[in-house]
Amino acid sequence: MPASLSPQERALLPQIQQWIAHHRAALIDDLAQWIAIPSISRADRAAPGAPFGPECAQILQQVLDHAEQAGFKTEQHQGYAGSVIYGRHARDIGLINHLDVVPAGDNWTFPPFALTQHGDFVTGRGVADNKGPGVLNLYLLRLIRDLNIPLHHNLRIIYGLAEETTMADMAWFAENGPVPDYSIVTDGMFPVNHAQKGQLSFTLNVAEAGILADIVAGSASNSVPDFASVRIKRADWHDVSKKLTLLQRVASGTLSVKPEKEGVFTLEARGNGGHAAFPEGTLNATQILLAALIELELVTDRERQLAETLVQLFASPYGKSAGLELEDAESGKLTLNAGVWYSQHAGTLSIDCDIRYPVSWRGEQIVEMLLQLLAATPVTLAPGWRDVAPFFMPASHPVVSLLQQVWNDTTGNDDRPYAMGGVTHSKRLPNAITFGPGYRKTAANTPDFLPEGHGLPHGADETIHLPSLLDALPKYVIALIRLDSYLIEHDFYT
């Protein structure tokens, strides 16, 4: 494994930087067009050739049109995914990305489906997860072509459309598509991700929930809701308003009441949204709302007991208060998120939840522990829970080591591969390793113009720092050169 950049690699760096400077404005313009399409994956709106709904079909066609206009070959995979290909070789190296996004949610300062630029920052749903990296992939192919960098493999970008929901896009592609022997998934943080926790998606039901059945919060099970509300029909608004001004124990500044008519008003709570797998810095708005219902004495005795049960169940984003405090050395702590609150049947509260569990555990074990916990409560687990098993590659795997060495050589760091709770297409395709282009937060690359808690993937005002994103391009060029050579030199195909 190289200990540093070769003379040829060093000679490429200034050429890459010059190319980036020349193409930066065009990349931003393309990203703005991609962000404008609210491509939320909707299998319930499937149509022939559009298994994830019309908006996902629209964004895929637009991206493939962009690629063809740039002179690349494209392939449509029956609406499940699309490919952009550079090269005329027998085998591919994949670049895996997704064009679907989570719903916008609430509490945005800027319009979610319009690109807003503020200096070196751009804001909009998907700029970080995963349309910004998706545009970067297309420009990576243009860069390699324009600099005439020789490779022995085709580069195949594969754009999926259901990563944020069921990953049915890459499940289909794994069975039917031209699957590369090795792929880089551009949907995570640098450096190299070698382990991803398992993911459980499930629904909890609370029957005869009374006023709690009117709680509305969240837009996706894998997002922490930053807004929650409940309609109150049997209280004096003026009395509640007075109590609210005196309330200190439930962060009264995040609560408000809106009168509708005599005896009817809406109680609203605001928290800090974000990605369910990375709960640091987030605050689930339903915790504030439930605590307020209790403290403001707006619930019956049964409703109070139910509210206290739910507060206890979801008090810790790491499952501690739910008896699910699990951790292993390979991947860290379990996370638990109550993402969507709604009433599908009269009088019943339903909650769509997300658990990311350590790689040394199995989904069935977690479900059994959850059932034992719920047995003593009025909360039930709905049938049809979904398990996406963990992903794990040893840090010593030669391709993991190769990519890690690229990172260390190009940054001067001495980092190691990492594990995470985030789920990527690494779980659906063989030998698909997540490698950037997310970046570590510093004072220089963190926006200072957003409200506290804003700017995160899956949260309000999702934002990226353009120079940090573009800085991934030289890392990917060197990574692809080395991976291309490795697969040939080590007789991978014999």
Automatic annotation (TrEMBL):
<protein>
    <submittedName>
        <fullName>M20 family peptidase</fullName>
    </submittedName>
</protein>
<comment type="similarity">
    <text>Belongs to the peptidase M20A family.</text>
</comment>
<dbReference type="Pfam" id="PF01546">
    <property type="entry name" value="Peptidase_M20"/>
</dbReference>
<dbReference type="GO" id="GO:0008777">
    <property type="term" value="F:acetylornithine deacetylase activity"/>
</dbReference>
<keyword id="KW-0862">Zinc</keyword>
<keyword id="KW-0378">Hydrolase</keyword>
<dbReference type="InterPro" id="IPR050072">
    <property type="entry name" value="Peptidase_M20A"/>
</dbReference>
<dbReference type="GO" id="GO:0016805">
    <property type="term" value="F:dipeptidase activity"/>
</dbReference>
<keyword id="KW-0645">Protease</keyword>
<keyword id="KW-0482">Metalloprotease</keyword>
<keyword id="KW-0170">Cobalt</keyword>
<dbReference type="GO" id="GO:0008270">
    <property type="term" value="F:zinc ion binding"/>
</dbReference>
<keyword id="KW-0224">Dipeptidase</keyword>
<dbReference type="InterPro" id="IPR010964">
    <property type="entry name" value="M20A_pepV-rel"/>
</dbReference>
<dbReference type="GO" id="GO:0006526">
    <property type="term" value="P:L-arginine biosynthetic process"/>
</dbReference>
<dbReference type="InterPro" id="IPR002933">
    <property type="entry name" value="Peptidase_M20"/>
</dbReference>
<dbReference type="InterPro" id="IPR036264">
    <property type="entry name" value="Bact_exopeptidase_dim_dom"/>
</dbReference>
<keyword id="KW-0479">Metal-binding</keyword>
<dbReference type="GO" id="GO:0008237">
    <property type="term" value="F:metallopeptidase activity"/>
</dbReference>
<dbReference type="GO" id="GO:0006508">
    <property type="term" value="P:proteolysis"/>
</dbReference>
